[in-house]
Every structure is written in structure tokens, then in C-alpha cells.
Specification:
With 94 residues, the protein is α+β, with helices and mostly antiparallel strands. Helices cover 38% and strands 22% of the residues.
Length: 94
Amino acid sequence: MAKQRVDGEDRGSIQLYALSTCVWCKMTKALLEKMNIGFDYVYVDQLQGEEKEQALEEVKRWNPKCSFPSLVVHGKKCVIGYKEDEIKEAIDTV
């Protein structure tokens, strides 16, 4: 899968599943960048074929409705949608 990396403070595994056209996804990505958090992200809508299927299956594992953004923190918690306080809490407590 074509994950991209944003460098920043290492706070463990943080994975953002997003759509390139989604305003809430862009806001979530911008929040993580503003917090100077290192994370991986993938724009699921820009994938094709098997890569896209794999990404969607991964999202569904955390978020059965497969909505975006889906932010998986430390492989333990998934924050669905742009929820600034919940995102900050998940990163700080997990």
C-alpha cells in the first residue's frame, strides 16, 4: 500500500486513512502536522486494484462503516471523523 510519511515527533504508530477530496481528512492531517506528530497516511481514493481493496479492508477492521477520516492510534484506538479533542487524547493516553 502506498503509505506516505510525515516526519515529526515519534509518538508511536499513527496511521491516517483519508480521502484526498475530504475536508475533514485534510483538517485531521493538518492538526497532526500542527502538533508536530510523525504519522503515516494513505489517500484511499488514489489507490487502485488490490492496494485499494487492502486499504479498505484495513479501514473496515477499525471502522465497519468505512467512513473517513479514520485515524488508528498505536493499533489500539480508532478516531473516526475530525474530533480534535479525541485525537489529542488518543495520542496522549495510548
